[in-house]
Inverse folding.
């Protein structure tokens, strides 16, 4: 059973701080990883994806992947109250036809 | 305006009735997916289709059925065999299997 694990939170950070969201996965066959943001009652929206070890930056967001440790993270710099949402991590497994497996999500609260 | 359209947004069903949720995309994506989300939970895969006229069961297919007769359409039928159908249903598509998926706005189904 492939699993993607996230701390459900809530993770509370003050406005302007760096929010660090973490995700671990059990399947070493996972090759691609995706971060989605989901506001309450809404559908998930894609923030970033990462395929290679290391960091990938896009604006205030940085995704980090460490395949040896089976660990993916999302850093949000200069957090804003509008970043308050649930963040879903998903992993894709090439050996299973890139089946996407989602974690349960981490709820982030950014306090003004 | 390209995107993924799910309808209806809210749906009420009596116990014992089948109901069909619509999902249409005009993004020319090959792959389409149906997920279920329960309150405070992550996404669980119901069915997926990598290409037109083909679909596969996901992790929780029992009580559901799908068809993929057209590339742009992937309707989901929730049958009376689904014992606990009240949930938020999300349709997604990706340009090809395994790449980043984009979601529709979701259908919230309530059994009354």
């Amino acid at each position: 059973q492939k699993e993607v694990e996230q701390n459900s939170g809530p993770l509370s950070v003050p406005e302007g701080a760096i929010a660090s969201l973490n995700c671990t996965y059990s399947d070493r066959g996972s090759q691609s990883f995706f971060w989605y943001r989901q506001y309450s009652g809404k559908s998930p929206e894609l923030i970033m994806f990462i395929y290679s070890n290391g960091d990938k930056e896009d604006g205030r967001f940085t995704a980090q992947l460490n395949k040896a440790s089976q660990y993916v993270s999302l850093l949000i710099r200069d957090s804003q109250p509008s970043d308050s949402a649930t963040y879903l991590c998903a992993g894709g497994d090439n050996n299973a036809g890139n089946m996407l497996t989602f974690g349960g999500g981490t709820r982030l609260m950014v306090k003004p | 305006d390209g995107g993924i359209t799910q309808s209806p947004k809210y749906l009420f069903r009596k116990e014992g009735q089948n109901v069909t949720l619509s999902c249409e995309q005009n993004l020319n994506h090959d792959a389409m997916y149906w997920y279920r989300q329960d309150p405070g939970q992550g996404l669980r895969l119901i069915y997926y289709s990598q290409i037109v006229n083909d679909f596969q069961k996901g992790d929780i297919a029992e009580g559901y059925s799908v068809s993929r007769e057209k590339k742009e359409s992937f309707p989901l039928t929730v049958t009376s065999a689904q014992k606990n159908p009240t949930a938020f249903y999300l349709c997604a598509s990706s340009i090809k299997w395994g790449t980043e998926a984009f979601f529709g706005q979701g259908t919230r189904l309530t059994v009354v």
